[in-house]
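Justification of resources, computational component.

The compute hours requested in this renewal are based largely on the per-chain cost of generating structure records like the one below. Each record pairs the submitted sequence with a full structure-token output. That output is archived, and it is also reused by downstream analysis tasks.
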Amino acid sequence: MSKRSYFGTDGIRGQANQYPMTAEVALRVGLAAGKLFRSADDRRHLVVIGKDTRLSGYMIEPALVAGFTSVGMDVRLFGPLPTPAVAMMTRSMRADLGVMISASHNNFSDNGIKLFGPDGFKLSDSMEARIEAFMDEGLQEGLATPRELGRVARMDEAQARYIEIVKATLPRSLSLKGLRVVIDCAHGAAYRVAPTALYELGAEVKEIGVAPNGFNINEESGSTHPAAIVKAVREYRADVGIALDGDADRLLICDEKGQIVDGDQIMALIASAWLEQGRLTGGAVVATVMSNLGLERFLAERGLDLARTAVGDRYVMARMREAKCNLGGEASGHIIMSDYSTTGDGLIAALQVLAELVRSKRPMSALARQFEPVPQKLENVRFTHGKPLEDETVLTAIAAAESRLNGSGRILVRASGTEPMIRIMAEGDDERLVGQLVREIAGAVRAAAV
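The structure output for this chain reads:
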């Protein structure tokens, strides 16, 4: 078996009840990961499991539980809880492993399994490869005796514990009293905790996307469908809107005029505030290759670097740890603040924005555009066979595009980590040229993929 047959860029993900997102694979994950994280000592071993609101969570969760308990691991079930909360609780409860059942911002028909180590960080590629190797060999070996089987219990206080952790990230000197905030929870994992935390911090809260039914997660709501938060902010005449995704590890902000603030602008706002307060560490912000060149220029003007990584918040986190940076993220709205969390946390990031909103006494629209984005064009080309990125014509088209930009922009062409797609991005000061270059590269990719 080749390396990483199950795991992609963010755990295992796919359409529910189709390989690899089946009950059988989930059972194998529980068996394999349980064996790997069960140490040789005599103590009880613990795994904690959270999920979002997808119907298929009811299929995946018991299969994981069966796998973990069969190798002697005790299980605590959180029910619906944001991904970052599961990461926090894994470390807080001294669990051996944490599991989040979610496909994040995807449609309800997908689901996924994300794993966290005892330190609360997502597992490394090498650790995932070891789990994969275990999944396909000797699953009947190392099973617990009837007396040593794991025990299972629901942990109803997990949501309350997370709410208190979130509230503690807002400086004590600040209150959200007087702020009218719209929160869109995408009918997902944060539908209870996010509105409660904001209310308890003093805000007047208007909730949308808080009626999950198993099918409507991310449906015309949340950070991937910003029209919903824009409409609600205008309707309620709110000071600010916060749109989370299905598992609440990413967000977008909407100002009082209905303008959307993406992850790059949010990182710029937080970086600027933290730099002024002497809180920013590492002399840099970590972001992926997809972040706008405008963010890089904004940071450079302040003597800061933009350290770029491959796409995926765990790669951002790995670089942050390596460079001792405490702020990083993605343009899509994953914002990682290592002072508070080991992964992206949409609600805690939102509170950092609200803190600056309160502190500055300015409207959100005055804070929303920290820099002028450089024109950027994206295009995805699906392919059914072959390796388009190794084709000579495609490589020539990319080289020609880079030459024409002449150092005044960037070209990025990469294969998707989750589907048979080539993602093409170009950015530069000449918007017309950028669009033309993307079209030319996309044409070469399509020709190579025939």
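The chain has four domains: 12-156, 161-260, 263-345, 376-449. The chain is about 35% helix and 20% strand.
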